[in-house]
Each structure stands twice: as C-alpha cells, then as structure tokens.
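Question (not urgent): is this output format expected?
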Amino acid sequence: MKTNALLIAAALALAGCASSSGFTFSDRQSLKNEQGDVIGYQELVRNNQSGETFKQVSLFRPVNDNAGRVIGYEEETRDGAIVRNLQGRQIGNRFADLRSRDTNMRSRGITFLMRDDASD
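Got this back:
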C-alpha cells in the first residue's frame, strides 16, 4: 500500500517537472490612446511546437482621482494590481485584502500610490 502511494507521488512529481508551457514571449510593445497615455501592451507569442506566432493584448483599467480625471491605469495581477502613471511607469500597487470582503463585498482591496505631481 505504501509502495503504491509512493510510486504515484513520484510519478506526479516527474510529470509536473516534465511539463512545459510550449510558448515563448518575445516582443512587448506599449499600446497608447489618442492622448498618448499608455493603456496596455501587446506581446508577440510563439508556439514552440508549431512555430505559429500571435499577438496577446492586455489592456489596463483606468484609475480616476476624486474629480474624475484619469491619473493612471491598473494592470491586473494574480494578487491585486500594479498601478501605472499615464507614461506607463509604476506608481503604486493594489493588494487584494480578503479580510475586508466580509464588511464590503465590492472592495477591490488596499491601494498604495506614490504619485509624482511633477509629471502632471
């Protein structure tokens, strides 16, 4: 019984190490809107097995100040978001705080911004 469990665990470990994504990310370019703000990026992705290439596009969510002006954009990540200014440089982070979901279900988490007013 122990031998079977050990054999299964070893097989799963080897299968996990042997798997590969099979894709190569090569070129990354910023996407800009009419005002010149960086609103996302596109990457050139290549399938290593077939040689096929395609573009993967990621768009950012706008971040507004209290007056409703766009001050930056959020790039979604697994554990929150990266907040970028209008030129695409990182100015902060948003962390998904699951503890606050009890009291406010629509909360997107805690945001830390390091805003540079000289860039306005």
